[in-house]
Amino acid sequence: MYKVLVTDSISDIGLKKLYEHPEFFVDKKNNLTELELCEIIKDYDALIVRSQTIVTKNLLEYATRLRVIARAGVGVDNIDLDSATRKGIIVINAPGANTIAATEHTLAMLLSLARKIPHAYQSTSKGEWKRGSFKGVELYEKTLGIVGMGKIGTEVAKRAKSFQMKILGFDPYLSDERAKKLGITKASLDEIAKQSDFITFHTPLTPETKGLVNDEYISKMKKGVRLVNCARGGIIVESALLHGLQSGQIAGAALDVFEQEPPTNLDLLQHPNIIATPHLGASTEEAQEKVAKEVSEEIISIFETNSIRHAINMPQISGEIQKKMKPFLELGEQIAQLAIQLFKQAPNKIDIRYSGELIEEDTSLLTRTMIKGILAYHLSDSVNIINAFHLLKEHGLTYNIEKNAPNKGFSNYMELSLSKGNEIVVIGGTVLNGYGTRIVKINNYRIDVKPEQHLLYIKHEDRPGMIGLVGSILGDYHINIGTMQVGRETIGGEAIMVLTLDKKIDDDVIYSLKLLNGLEEVDVLELSKEVAVVENY
Ligand SMILES: NC(=O)c1ccc[n+]([C@@H]2O[C@H](COP(=O)([O-])OP(=O)(O)OC[C@H]3O[C@@H](n4cnc5c(N)ncnc54)[C@H](O)[C@@H]3O)[C@@H](O)[C@H]2O)c1
Ligand SMILES: O=C(O)CC[C@@H](O)C(=O)O
Hints:
Rossmann fold, CATH 3.30.1330.90, seven-stranded parallel beta sheet, 18 helices
């Protein structure tokens, strides 16, 4: 049974699939302090939050069982991503599920700001009738600057166009082609400042966007500009906004998000030209159901099938690439497990070489899978594809990826070397179309082994009778040999045997084998089949 903790106000209808799933138990506990959360988090496999719960490094120290943190929404700035990644915890979100809600809220704020609706309502609800006090401005033929042309920025642009506004858009990823298609003008931040009557922000909070709207940027704006922020507090420096309002440089601002939430800056909140809502952008019934449904479904698929669609701390890989890469992921895992078992110690350098068809493929997940396979041998189950690179760095290992390495005559080929000083182990493998994975190289030996769960690796002198001797000892212990492959460099020199066996062999069999004359090394190798999958739409 997987235990899921829900700590913010999340739609029960959206969580229905989790409630009804026999393998999941959902606990809803709102308004917990960090201390209370630290006390209980150890009991849970998954945590679902909105923006209120702050998932700190300290909290994650107690989260010994946690595998998934789900943000029922978009922004993950309330989650310590680095700490989650280091601990191998997948962080997922529900991108897109609240786009329309946040877009409509932005438009509502824009119109309310232009027509002073909240102020007029406040006055009218007190019985006043001050028709002269709330004269507004029109959106018609005004210029709207949009900073951040992602999902919400784009939807805002489409709707603002119906008011016949001229739209200027700034986003590092906005191409000329997309701007043209949307019927907007691509502009720089300075052009937006100089030309816009209204500016709305739709970026995440990043080191680049934090404090973007400061005294200097405000001074570049058109006098009487109106600002809307329904993205993240901190994009606008609140003290600079207040100066701008006081000086008349800014005619008004509509804020849904604040530097600190709940906000304490009453000078700003009570300024007559401010309108504010308490982070309501995503607060519609529809959006809340959608975000909760999306994260519930993803949690179920992560625990049931290991498949991840919207991981924040993982590369996004399309479902199509996933499918295509599946046999290579299996081979990568097998190669990594064999290499680390044969290396018998922790390496300090990892070299991965891809050739043939693999040169053209997105191998990021494959590389992670191999690194995970290598590290997991010594660092246990706490290693996964999420924290593989973190742990690699933490343990001082270096790695090198070469694409376009010699392909040894196979249509696809991958090779892994583990090394430390003069010690090195090299394993090469390929996927044979329709026949599955094959190990085709161990150190300098060419072989052809179909990887199985139980393998025996023997290094011996290349002389007559060795194969028979090994076979008869295994026979004496009733161990059935599935396949046997031999490889040698020179006649009469050193050779290897790789056997696949039907069951694991005991120490006494190894002991008997080691007594054989001419046998230099015997290693029992075990392969597990667990391969992580990441999906994306
Ligand atoms: N108020 C709310 O309740 C609410 C609801 C939903 C989303 N949001 C917030 O709205 C913001 C936008 O959400 P989205 O779903 O559109 O995200 P998105 O990822 O689709 O779009 C963000 C865009 O910002 C752009 N960007 C990043 N850095 C930039 C920079 N320095 N200058 C200009 N553009 C930059 C990105 O290229 C991207 O296109 C996020 O911060 C999200 O957390 C708030
Ligand atoms: O959960 C919320 O209400 C806020 C959502 C919003 O800020 C987001 O980034 O998705």
